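User: Here's a protein and a ligand (glyoxylic acid). What would the complex look like?
Assistant: Let me lay out the input and then the predicted complex.
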Amino acid sequence: MSGSRSAKDFFRPLAVGAPAPLTEIPARPSRAIHFFDPSNPKMAAKIPDMVGKVDVLLGNLEDAIKADNKTAAREGLVKIAQETDFGPTQLWTRINSLDSPWVLDDLTTLVPAIGDKLDVIMVPKVQGAEDIHYVDRLLAQLEAKAGLERPILIHAILETARGVANVEEICAASPRMQGLSLGPADLAADRRMKTTRVGGGHPGYLVRQDPPKNELGVADINAARTTYQQDLWHYTIARMVDACAMHGIYPYYGPFGDIADEVACEDQFRNAFLLGCVGTWSLHPKQIAIANRVFSPSVEDVAHARRVAAAMGDGTGAVMLDGKMEDDASLKQCLVMVELAEQLAA
Ligand code: GLV
Ligand code: MG
């Protein structure tokens, strides 16, 4: 592999007109963002044991936390953060939405109390750059007041039609932007999609094979035909991945609500990984193992990528390996795998 080139040169170009990064975004693994309810003492008690076993622990303050428990969740998160050494695991939180009565208290409580421990703040229901500007300015004031030196990064959930329409400007709205997640439940509702599932496919979203023709060339529409289930989320994930790549930030899948269906969960996560996502949410401890497996490149893929890199020498020209053509472009694909493997092994 040529010494001066890395996948980063190709994968995270600085976008024209985008603000210069405030700091280099920490390229720490975040394959599974495991959600917990800090107002639930049973769940909170398990957090110290999860440190080191998951890339990100996220104290959730928004949806799934009852209105009566918002204060308890906020205070619970402060307590957990102050009492826990997170080691290699990142600590994130999901604050309440910007149109809620709780969000100001979320930020003014969390930043002074545990701003030194919080890596990323996830902002739900982001509609456009103005939402990110608001959080960015508020964070700057609160960080300055608290004397924090390390900026807290922002992660936006893409879960409104307007947010999807504005995805590029959201990515570019602040040098604090760390990444985006898909929010399929809120997004489905906002778009008036007719699915009640949280993420995943739908048995009604199909394409059907063409009918066979009889000897006269007439289509037999009554013949048995195979149907193929399609992915409801492909368009949004692809848009999200492009916007993130353009601005050098990280795309993530989101929640997969059918906890029992581990096979379908793995399929959804793998599709997202193949399309460019770096991680996903975990709503149950068993989804952590699925995410860690899926969002790590396979040993075979990494070995192949290293072979291509070695065969390509200075990184230019073309070579034949196992009957397949490799060149400058396929080397770049391989370097993405190698870089991810190295990041995960570090
Ligand atoms: C997540 O927040 C979702 O709405 O799917
Ligand atoms: Mg949501």
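Summary: The first strand starts at residue 32 and ends at 36.
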